[in-house]
Amino acid sequence: MTKRRMRSAGITLGLTALVAASLTGCARDEQPDYAAICVDPQTQTRTDDGNCKDDREYHGSGAGFFWFYMATRAGGLVPPIGGRYNVAQGTYTVPRTASGGTGSPTIKRGGLDKKGGDIGKITRGGFGKVGKGSSGG
Hints:
The protein is of the alpha+beta class. Helix content is 22%, strand content 16%. The chain has two domains: 1-28; 34-122, no CATH class. The longest helix is centred in the first third of the chain and has 26 residues, at 2-27.
């Protein structure tokens, strides 16, 4: 009877440790390599994320709304909705490598504070890792 009770306690302890480790991994404060805001390149203003319906890239001509990708570790400022953004702080094309120069980047499209702020602070999320190609609109 003692061996059975010890084995049961060992299994319970092991499962508890496994669950605790997985929850800790979910709560980790991970930051994507790039965050994208929805913009109107003609007026150089940020617009609501819902206006960016797809992942089209802006190449200097055409009208509409496009994602503007900013490196989250570059110290840039995200403008509020309706505010002008600095073209030198990002790109209209989807980044192909992580900000360190190797591997696939993690990208967060949309969902940033509508009031704007420091990109390094407002891109940190809660649960889970932001995957490549996530979409906000």
